[in-house]
Amino acid sequence: MLVGYARVSTLDQNPKLQTDALKIAGCEKIFIDKISGTVSDRPELKKLKEHLRKGDTLVVWTLDRLGRSLNDLLNWMAELETLEVSFKSLHERIDTCTPTGKLVFHLFGSLSEFERSSI
């Protein structure tokens, strides 16, 4: 099952652009937060995590909707891998269902680890 996640930073913003793209991508269920990405406790993201099952794919419009830092994204990727859930970002065209998509995320992880060890 394709499960979408959309987020806007304020209550005044409209997530329609994101939700339309997620629907076109085939998402059967979409979770929407209206909260800053810097807030770690996002209610709909928490519900989404509880909803995900082995074989599902989490779909976002852009990477920054899920995490505001590389570290956040890498933590999510590790969590999804543990759950055996794939990940797609529509804007960046990243898809961990494919070997190339997995490689991209492993490269991100390697760069992040290098950065941490260099500091």
TrEMBL record:
<feature type="active site" description="O-(5'-phospho-DNA)-serine intermediate">
    <location>
        <position position="9"/>
    </location>
</feature>
<feature type="domain" description="Resolvase/invertase-type recombinase catalytic">
    <location>
        <begin position="1"/>
        <end position="119"/>
    </location>
</feature>
<dbReference type="Pfam" id="PF00239">
    <property type="entry name" value="Resolvase"/>
</dbReference>
<dbReference type="InterPro" id="IPR006119">
    <property type="entry name" value="Resolv_N"/>
</dbReference>
<keyword id="KW-0233">DNA recombination</keyword>
<dbReference type="InterPro" id="IPR006118">
    <property type="entry name" value="Recombinase_CS"/>
</dbReference>
<dbReference type="InterPro" id="IPR050639">
    <property type="entry name" value="SSR_resolvase"/>
</dbReference>
<protein>
    <submittedName>
        <fullName>Recombinase family protein</fullName>
    </submittedName>
</protein>
<keyword id="KW-0238">DNA-binding</keyword>
<keyword id="KW-0229">DNA integration</keyword>
<dbReference type="InterPro" id="IPR036162">
    <property type="entry name" value="Resolvase-like_N_sf"/>
</dbReference>
